[in-house]
Sequence to fold (218 residues):
Amino acid sequence: MLDWAIYIIAILVFFLTHSIPVRPTNKARVVAHLGARGFTLGYSTLSIATLSFVIIAANHTPFVELWPWAPWQNYVTLIAMAGAVLIASLAIGRPNPLSFGGGNNDQFDPRTAGIIGWVRHPLLAALLLWSLGHLIPNGNLAHVILFGLLASFSFLGKRIIDKRNQRLLGLENWQHLSHTQRDIAITWSGLMRVCIGIAIYLLLLYVHSAIIGVTPLP
Fold:
C-alpha cells in the first residue's frame, strides 16, 4: 500500500508542477526574476525531475499484469520514439507563440513555421507518441495508468493551451498566427536539428537499460 501511495503522490506532484508554474500570473512573476530562458530551463528541469519521480515510483509498485509482453511490442516503442525525438528536435527553441517550448516568439512567421506548420503543439505530440509507444509493451497496471494519463494529458492539453493563448494573444492575432503554411523546404538548420535528433535517439537507446533497467531492443 505504501508503494501505491507514493506512486499516487508522484502523479499528483507531476501534474501540479506542470500546471501551476505555467499559469499566466505565476509565469510572469518567474520570468520577471529569471527571464524567459531561465523560466524555460527551470521548467524543463522540474519537468524531467518530476517525470523521473513518477517513473521510479511506478517501477516500485506491485506488478499487476493486464496483458503479456511480446517482442513485437518493442518495435512499436522504437518507431514511436523515433518520431517523438525527431519532432522534439525540430521544435525545441524555435519561435512558437502558439504553444510552449518555443524561443524568440516575436520572430515567429506563420509563412515559414517549419514543424509548427504541421504540428501546432509539437512537444505535446512528442509526449503523446512517447506515452503511447511505451504503453504497448508495459501491460501492467501501474505503467498503464502512468502512460495512459500522460497520453490523455498531451491530447487534452492542446485545447487548454489554445484557449489560454487566445486570451493572451487576442483571438484575431491568434487566428492570424495559427494560419501556418505547411512547407517541406529543406534548410541547413533543419538538417542540423535532424542530425541532433538522430544522435539523441541513439544515445537514448544506449543509456536506456543502464538508467531504466530495461533494454529497449527486442
